[in-house]
Amino acid sequence: xxxxxxxxxxxxxxxxxxxxxxxxxxxxxxxxxxxxxxxxxxxxxxxxxxxxxxxxxxxxxxxxxxxxxxxxxxxxxxxxxxxxxxxxxxxxxxxxxxxxxxxxxxxxxxxxxxxxxxxxxxxxxxxxxxxxxxxxxxxxxxxxxxxxxxxxxxxxxxxxxxxxxxxxxxxxxxxxxxxxxxxxxxxxxxxxxxxxxxxxxxxxxxxxxxxxxxxxxxxxxxxxxxxxxxxxxxxxxxxxxxxxxxxxxxxxxxxxxxxxxxxxxxxxxxxxxxxxxxx
Length: 279
Hints:
Blueprint: H1 10-17, E1 29-30, H2 33-42, E2 50-54, H3 60-67, E3 72-76, H4 83-92, E4 97-100, E5 117-122, H5 128-136, E6 147-153, H6 154-161, H7 171-179, E7 180-188, E8 193-194, E9 201-208, H8 218-230, H9 236-239, H10 247-253, H11 267-278
Parallel strand pairs: 2-3, 2-5, 3-4, 5-6
Antiparallel strand pairs: 1-8, 6-9, 7-9
């Protein structure tokens, strides 16, 4: 299958509009419509959902999302060169695609969407992690989104789903898994992209939990986790000495060992410690 709709192949779209991926914008275009449709399907049944897409570029994933039945797609594209190509998609799917020429970091996208909402994006490499952190740390929980289906460099994806005890386990794993179920659902080789990146990529699906996995104050938990992993080679009693003057007593009260290191502590353990510190 080389097409998912009546629009031209993506290579023809890129040639017609003179589009070349720009490294300064973190762009790597995914041109295989089989793959873009497969990524769209990883988000589940899109019928009845608004979908937020960041960095659609020439619109390969956008077409996949619409073809898979998304009620409406809101595409945020910073690169004005891509707007004409996205306009062609909008014409082919009347009233189902809205394109905003904006920087996603500067925009409150939730104001343009109607629940239920899913986020599906081949994120630009240079803003992917920052956007993920923002989506996982809203002022109120549950967030505006039901699920996130996002492509990252494979190394970042592994950090999101990492378990205690390994080098990949850190702040990103705790942030992601405290409030969501996270799993890698696809891997893609460099040659799937134009231009090919130097690393493999992976798609991560995060399903929002109704409530955080364990009770804890978000700001206190974030402060403790940041301090612990900023000095991850140190024992907890040393890494966290600036958190509270009696931190060793609080570590023990949380059921942890002061001699543990951050990568040995589970999310439940960090939450228990956050409750001790907050209390």
